[in-house]
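Case study.
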Amino acid sequence: MRYDSVTDMIGDTPLVRIDAAVHGLRNIDLYAKMELFNPFGSVKDRAAWNMVRHRLPGAAGRGETVVELSSGNTAKALAVIAGMHGLPFRSVTNRMRVPEIKDLLLLLGAQIDELPGRSECLDPTDTDDPLTRMYHAVSADGAGYLHTDQYFNDLNVQAHVHGTGPEIIADLDGRAPDYFIACVGTAGSSSGVARVLRAHDPAVTVVGLVAEKSDFIPGIRDIDEVHEVGLFDPGTYDVIEAISSDEAIDGLLTLVRRCGTLAGPTGGGAYQGAVRYLRGIDAGLTGRRTAVFIVCDRVESYLSYLRDRRPELFRQPARANSVHSLTGDELAAAPTLDVAAAQAWIDAEQPLIVDLRSPFAYRALHIDRSINIVDDRFGEMLHGGLPFSRRQPVLLVCPVGEKSARYAALLTRMGHPDVRSLTGGVIAWRDAGATLVRD
Amino acid sequence: MTRGVRLVRYLQPRVEGDLRSLLDDHPWLHQVAGALGSPLNLVLPDQVARNAERFREVYRAHHLSGGIYFAHKANRSSALIRALAGVGGGADVASLGELQHVLAAGFAPERIMATGPKSREYLWLAARAGVIVNADSVTELSDLAGIVAAHALPRVRVMARLSGFATTGTTVLSRASRFGTPATGTAPLWDVLAEHRDRLDLLGVAYHLDTVGLPEKAAALDGCLSAMDDAGRHGLNPRAIDIGGGFGMNYLADAGEWESWTSELTAAVLGRRPPLTWNGHGYGLRNEGGTVRGTLGVYPAHRTVAGPDYLDRLLRTESTAHRRPLGELVLDHLYELYVEPGRALLDQCGAVLLRVEDVGDDGRGETLVRVAGNGTDVGLEQHGVLMDPLLVPRGTPAPGGPAGVYLTGNLCLEADLITRRKVFLPSRPQPGDLLAFANTAGYLMDFSAGAALMQPTARTIAAYRSGDAWRWCLDDRYWPVTGREGTR
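After joint prediction, the assembly is written out as follows.
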C-alpha cells in the first residue's frame, strides 16, 4: 500500500473479534475496534488531524504555535503533526503522570508546561481554570496560537462521525452493533460513534465508562471531570459506569496475553467494562447480539504505570551479590573503623577510598585521594563480582556510615579480606575536624 | 438509594487521640464554655510536642539533622509555643511581636528563625538576640548588615530565600511569589554576602512554596542544591537548606465522604440536585451552558499523604537533575535540613467551641442555626476548609435523625456564615447545645479574629491530662510544668 503522507494512514482501522473462549459471553459477539493501529498509535490521531488540518496552511508563516491541554495521546499526535508542518507544539497540563509519555513528548520536540499544584494556604478567590491561565501564558509571548481545544471542539466529534462510526457499520455488514462501549476522555470518540450508530439504528445501547474517583486511568476522566468537558452530554449514554484502575489493568492483561492485542489501560478498561456490563445481559438472551468496544492505544507507554500498580508482573530473579540479601548477622559483623583509626590506616596502608555519595556532593567536598562511585552504581558493579583485587585494602565511606557498612559486609561475604567502613561516615569525619578537600 | 439518604452529605472531621477523648467529654465542654463563654478556643499543648516527634522520626529515617521550626503564624497560643520550647523544637516567627513572644517562651536564639516582611525594629531585635534571619531580598541583607555595623552587633546567621526555580524537561509552572531572590539570578546575593562577610554568616538557602504539588517542591529543592554549590564556589560556606512548610493536613475521616460531596457539588452547580451550599455558592465552579467551568477553590480536605508523611515522600522523590532521591542528596552533601511546618504540627491540637443561640427555619425549607461566634472565630470559609462540626448536646438530642443546617454568625451582616456549606449533624441542634469545630488549631482558630461589631473574641484555654481527668488553665498561664507539680 502506497501513501503520499503518513496522515493519509489515519483511520480505517480493523474490527477484530474477541475469542468467545476468552470473554465467556455465550450469546454476544464482542469486537474490538483497533484504534491502536493509527500511525501515531492511538484513536486521538483522528481528532488531532481533523482539528488541525484546515488551519495548517500559512500557520508557519504567521508564527503560530499549536497549543492543547493534554498530557497524553492528543499531545502526541499534535506534536508529530506540528513537527511535520514546521510548527512548535506546546502542551499545557495539570500533571504529566505517565513518565514514558512525558519523555516521548520531549523527544518529539514538544514543550510541556505543568500547571502549579493547589495552594496550601488557600486564596478562595483565585479560581482561574487551567485554560484561562494557558491563554494568558500563550498570548503573553506575543505570537499567535493555534488552539485545538479538544474538549470543546466539534471537529473532534466529527472525526468519528465521518470515520470511526461509519467504519464500524461497514465492517458489520451494514448493521449497527447492539451495544457500543467506550471510555470517556474528551467524549469525542464516544459521542461521534454514538451519533452515527443511533442514526443507523435507534435501538443501539451506548455505555460510557469513567474512572472511579480518586483513581487514575490515563485517558479516562472521572465522573466529576467529565462535566468539565464541553463535548460531554450525559444524554449520549444509556448507561455511565465507573471502572477502577485495577479492572483496567485486568482487562489490559487479558488483551495483551490472550488476544494478541497490545492494548493500553484505556483499551483494557473498555474491554473489562464491556464484559462486566454484557455479562449481566448475556444470561437472559435468546438470540445473538453484537457489541463493539474501542482499543484506544498501545501498552508500551504505560510500563511504569503498570510497574507502580502491579510490581509482581515485573518480577525479576534475585540478582547475585545484592545488599538486600544481607542477613542481620552479616551486617553486625561488617568491618568498621572510627575516624581516628581510619586516619592511621590510611597513613599506614594507603587503602583505596571509595566515596559512595552522589558525584554532585563529592565534587563539593571529599576525603583527599578518594574516588567516587555512587552507591547504586557500585551496587551494579558488585552484581558482576569483586571490582578490585583482594590484595588492595578498601575503605568505604558514605554520609553516615550506614550504606558503607552494608557494602563492606557484602564485599566481605564476596571474599574480600581487607575492606572497612568508616563509622559515622563523612559527617563524623568532618565533625572530628579531619580534612575535606574540594579539587 | 432513597432520596432522604442521598440528601445527607456528611464531611466528618478526623478526630483522634487526646482531642477525641476531650471532645467526647461533653459535661466538661459545657462546664468550660459555660464559665468562659462562646466562642472558646481549646488547645492541647502535649499534642504539638508529639507531632514534632513524628517529624523527627522522618529525619531519623533519612539520617538527616537540622531543625523543625514551627510556623508561629498558624496559631498565636502561648501554651502551644511553650510546649514546643519545652521539647527542644524551633520557631519560625514572622513579625516583631511573634519574635518577642517566642523569646519570652524560652526558645534559645539558635532555635528561632525570623522570616516574613521585616521592619528595622524587627531586624534589630533578631540580630541583637542572635536568631537566624531568613532574608527575602538582597536589600534586606544590606539593611541587616548596616544595622549590625551601626550597633556593633555580633555576626548574624542568615538564610537566603530563593524563588522562581528553573526546571528540567518539562516546565513546571509555579505561582509567582512575593518573597525571595530569583534562583536564576543569584550573583548580587553572593556579592552582598561576600561584601558583608564579617557581619553576615550565610547558613544556607531557603524556599517556601505555597502549593500542595510535590513536583514544584522537588524542583525548588533541586534548585537549592545548585545554589548551595554556587555559593560554595563564591567562597561562602553554607551548611543548611530550609525547605519551608506546606506539608498539609488531612482534615476528614473518610475519603468516600469527600469524594461524594465534591461530586454532589458538581451536580448541584449543574442544577441536577438541590444546592449543598448557601445561595448555591459553587466554591469556584460555575455552570456555563451545562458544562462546569472554573476550579474548585477549596482546601483538599481529605489527603492520603500529609504532614510528616508528605515530608518523607518529598525526601524520597528523585531529583530530576541528579537522578537520586532528594533526601540522599541533602545527606550526601552533609547539609542540615530545616523545615517550617505550621498546620501540620498542629494536627489534633485544638478545637473551637460555639454555643447554639437559635434554631429556626428560613421559610424556604432550610434550617438556620445561629451561633455565638462568627466567621472570623472559625476560619473555615476564609481558608476553604470544608468539614462538619461535632454536636455536643446539652440535654437529650432532638428526635428525627440527621439534619442539614446552615450556620449563621453573630454579626449583623448577610455574609456572616461560619461556612457557606450546609453542614450535617446527627440530630437537629437546640439552643444551648455546643458545636465543636475540631482540629482547627492550624490557621482556623483566631487567625483573623477581631472585635467587629464589638462582639466578644474567644478566650483560649490549654487542656492537659491529669491522670484520666482533663484539666485546664488560661492559655497564657500554661507552662510546661503546669499540672505536673508531682514531678521535678
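Observations recorded in class. The longest strand of chain B covers residues 350-361. Confidence is low (pLDDT under 50) at residues 1-5 of chain B. We will return to this complex in the next lecture.
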